[in-house]
Design a protein that fits this description.
- The chain is an alpha/beta fold.
- The chain folds into three domains: 3-90, Udp-n-acetylmuramoylalanyl-d-glutamate--2,6- Diaminopimelate Ligase, Chain: A, domain 1, CATH 3.40.1390; 95-334, Mur-like, catalytic domain (UDP-N-acetylmuramoyl-L-alanine:D-glutamate ligase, 3-Layer(aba) Sandwich); 344-496, Mur ligase, C-terminal domain (Protein-Tyrosine Phosphatase, Chain A).
- Helices cover 33% and strands 19% of the residues.
- It is built from 18 helices and 22 strands.
- Strands 9-10-8-11-12-13-14-15-16 form a nine-stranded mixed sheet, sandwiched between helices. The protein has a six-stranded mixed sheet with strand order 17-18-22-19-20-21, sandwiched between helices.
- Strand 13 (247-253), helix 11 (258-264) and strand 14 form a beta-alpha-beta unit.
- Helix 3 packs parallel to helix 6, helix 4 packs across helix 12 and helix 12 (307-320) runs antiparallel to helix 13 (325-334).
- The radius of gyration is 24 Å and the shape is globular.
- The two termini are 30 Å apart.
């Protein structure tokens, strides 16, 4: 663990100590919390104002639970009129970033550390989990919990690292230009991974081209000795090779013969890509760009062909970090989903299968999930009835109606048996399906998750496969949990893990579920 004194924290954050704070008080940074309910003895509590609540209001709770120091933006006094011990700074979140940068600097100075940054419009958390699973067999590895990928979540991840940490995996999200650069400047990645440029958050960014600019900040941050891992199959990502001074490693699907590898520039390749009867990706993996001979079979325990991108990205980053090829292939074949609500499959005792993929949604991931549902429905000689329970894709801006309409049409073209659209924002999915040729009860619309649950409780029958997908903010992941729970048995096969929102804080309490 990294230990700083209260005085050092004040100096690093350009803050000042309250009169009750002891400058020599040692603080273990792995005890930093932003939610007073997570406070334990010796914690540093970060109080920050937010959209829904002010973290300063929870200082009494934090100190009652064992906090010994606060990082705050103003003094707060107890019932007796004495200020709580605190480092007072201008911006608590930026102060967390300054502390995180110092932690990385100290760990690098103490020993060998490789920092890997991962960004992209979709697949960051799955790739992060896969990569951490590979690297953890080589040395102490720290990776984010759930989707801690923002200006609060990244420092909280860094604070869990210590002098023994060999690999630090950082997931980086953004809702605007400059966000990735800020995070990259904080942790200085040695290896930077860009998965793809999609339309997620297009409304906030002002268009897909701005998303490409923002995601490319990852490779621009790399030093000449670093490595940029780029998705060759995404032309916007492929073009980022011109934006970095680091070594470039392209990954993608294609033939693995040496001649083809040289022609396309692929250094990490998947060949003979398909899904098995369970909808799990299988392919032959090779590393021609690293001089490794031969092909290695990979059969993933994840669901859906779209995960090939994530599997390849994790393989490329791990190989660049020094992992042997055979270890990579073996690990990728063993790992199941580690974070919740990402193609999380539950086979109920009554024969109904629930696939809960409602943590994130954009047009690209919606289409990928629907294709997986269609493949599973075709089965292995025994077709099954398929249900797509779809909610809103948020933050699409002016393209929202058009993109929702298009997803509804895709569901019809893929011959999904039943489409159930939930929520007024997503209603154009239902309209698009009807216009594409759906009729009767093949496509239905309800306003709320409760209505959807009631309808599904009446209509589902043994053998049905149900996909539940929406943006995180729409909350359909909890509908997926409800659908999975009633008929669960000890033999139910559930791909699950632990997760949560990025860095839950007191300032966002009304968002907590």
């Amino acid at each position: 663990m990294t230990i700083l004194t209260a005085g050092e924290i004040a100096a690093l954050t350009s803050g000042h100590l309250t009169s009750t704070a002891d400058a020599d008080l040692p603080i273990q940074l792995n005890g930093v919390v932003t939610d007073s309910r997570e406070t334990r003895q010796g914690s540093l509590y970060v109080a920050k104002p937010g959209e829904f609540a002010d973290g300063h209001a929870f200082l009494p709770d934090a100190f009652a639970a064992g906090a010994v120091l606060a990082l705050a933006e103003r003094e707060v006094s107890d019932a007796g009129g004495r200020p709580y011990p605190a480092v007072v700074v201008q911006d608590a979140v930026l102060a967390m970033g300054a502390l995180a940068a110092e932690v990385v600097r100290r760990i690098r100075a103490a020993g060998e550390l490789t920092v890997i940054g991962i960004t992209g419009s979709a697949g960051k958390t799955t790739t992060k989990d896969l990569l951490a699973g590979i690297l953890s067999s080589l040395g102490p590895t720290v990776a984010p919990q759930g989707s801690f990928n923002g200006e609060v979540g990244v420092p909280l991840t860094v604070f869990r690292a210590d002098a023994d940490t060999r690999y630090l995996v950082i997931e980086m999200g953004a809702t605007g230009i400059g966000h990735i650069r800020y995070l990259a400047d904080m942790v200085r990645p040695d290896i930077g991974v860009v998965l793809g440029v999609g339309s997620a958050h297009a409304g906030e960014f002002g268009g897909v081209e701005n998303i490409a600019i923002a995601k490319g900040e990852m490779v621009e941050s790399l030093a000449p000795g670093g490595t940029a891992i780029l998705n060759y199959d995404d032309e916007r990502v492929r073009a980022m090779s011109a934006r970095t001074v680091a070594r470039v490693v392209h990954f993608g699907e294609g033939d693995t013969g040496n001649e083809d590898a040289r022609r396309t520039g692929l250094q990490v390749v998947a060949e003979d890509v398909r899904t098995d009867a369970q909808g799990q990706p299988t392919f032959l993996l090779s590393f021609p760009g690293f001089g490794d001979p031969g092909q290695l079979p990979v059969t993933s325990r994840l669901l859906g062909l779209h995960h090939v991108t994530n599997l390849l990205a994790a393989a490329a980053a791990a190989r660049a970090a020094g992992a042997p090829a055979q270890l990579i292939a073996s690990s990728l074949s063993q790992q199941a989903a580690a974070s919740r609500w990402r193609m999380e499959r539950t086979d109920r005792a009554d024969g109904v299968t629930i696939i809960n993929d409602a943590y994130n949604a954009n047009p690209e991931s919606m289409r990928a999930a629907l294709r997986t549902l269609a493949e599973l429905g075709r089965g292995n000689g025994s077709p099954r009835r398929t249900w797509a329970v779809l909610g809103p894709m948020l933050e699409l801006g002016d393209d929202s109606i058009r993109e929702h309409d298009a997803v509804g049409r895709v569901a019809v073209r893929l011959n999904i048996s039943r489409l159930l659209v939930v929520g007024s924002i997503a209603r154009s999915m239902h309209v698009g399906a009807v216009m594409e040729g759906s009729w009767g009860d093949e496509s239905m619309f309800v306003e709320t998750a409760e209505e959807a649950h009631d309808l599904l409780s009446r209509e589902l029958r043994p053998g049905d496969i149900v996909l539940v997908k929406s943006s995180n903010g729409a909350g359909l992941r909890f509908l997926g949990d409800q659908l999975a729970a009633p008929a669960e048995s000890p033999t139910a096969q559930t791909q699950a893990g632990t997760s949560g929102p990025d860095a839950t804080t007191d300032s966002g309490r009304t968002q907590l579920q």
